[in-house]
């Protein structure tokens, strides 16, 4: 199961899912409440816990076990909470250039302070105080894919509820017993420069420090957009590696 990042939807992982299915995997790409094709369900009370419940419900209602649960970017937040709640169903959690929260942390806690200021100001400017448009600084960089394809991608992004960034995550500690892996995208450093610091670097350092399975992918922060086949190959390899033994430190 792959959970998308901020402002996106399950639709943006179709290419990766298609490639993984070709490798024999069952793949689910749920869309979080208030985003993608579920944008009409957004409101001021949609927060991080809503998104955690979205992922838990997808796992439970599909009656899944031995799940490889992947989260990209912001998706690392709800994936962490969901894995904590249904740890008995999860075989491996893979963070794809994602935030990795601890108990009590919000996305704002893990992102540069300038991002919080930008998000809150843009939500206020929207008039209703809760819709956060995607900042131009975190859009996929120009030149990585054809302009027409990039335009189609950007046109499908949707505003994200402010509370999903602000609400802290509550963990029981069950996730500490779930194996984890990290995919670090190394093909672009524009994101950190544009928003006042690299929000992914601390998560990548933690993954290496704690001995998680760790891989690097030469792609920008949105590898599902620029290299879906290569992204699928890394996820496939990690899922297989997790069944054998963890990487040595």
Look up the CATH topology.
Answer: Rossmann fold
What number of domains? 1
CATH class designation: Alpha Beta
**Shape from CA axes?**
globular
Label the CATH architecture.
3-Layer(aba) Sandwich
Order of helices and strands: EHHEHEHHEHEHEHHEHH
Number of strands: 7
* Strands side by side in the biggest sheet: 1-2-3-6-7
**Strand percentage:** 5-15%
Biggest β-sheet description: 5 strands, parallel
CATH H-level name... which superfamily? Alpha/Beta hydrolase fold, catalytic domain
Task: Give the integer mean of the pLDDT values.
Answer: 93
Tally the helices: 11
Low-confidence spans: 245-249
The end-to-end span amounts to 27 Å
- Helical amount: 25-40%
Rg result: 17 Å
Blueprint (SSEs and pairs):
Elements lengths: L1 E2 L10 H9 L25 H14 L5 E6 L3 H10 L4 E7 L10 H4 L2 H13 L5 E2 L14 H9 L4 E2 L1 H4 L13 E6 L4 H6 L5 H9 L3 E5 L5 H4 L1 H15 L7
Parallel strand pairs: 1-2, 2-3, 3-6, 6-7
Antiparallel strand pairs: 4-5
Helix pairs in contact: 1-11, 2-3
Structure description:
- This protein has 249 residues and is α/β, with parallel strands linked by helices.
- 39% of the residues lie in helices and 12% in strands.
- It has one domain (2-242): 3-Layer(aba) Sandwich (Rossmann fold), CATH 3.40.50.
- The protein has a five-stranded parallel sheet, sandwiched between helices. A two-stranded antiparallel ribbon has the order 4-5.
- Helix 3 links the parallel strand 2 and strand 3 (90-96).
- Helix 1 (14-22) packs across helix 11 (228-242) and helix 2 packs across helix 3.
- It is globular, with a radius of gyration of 17 Å.
- The two termini are 27 Å apart.
- Residues 245-249 have low confidence and may be disordered.
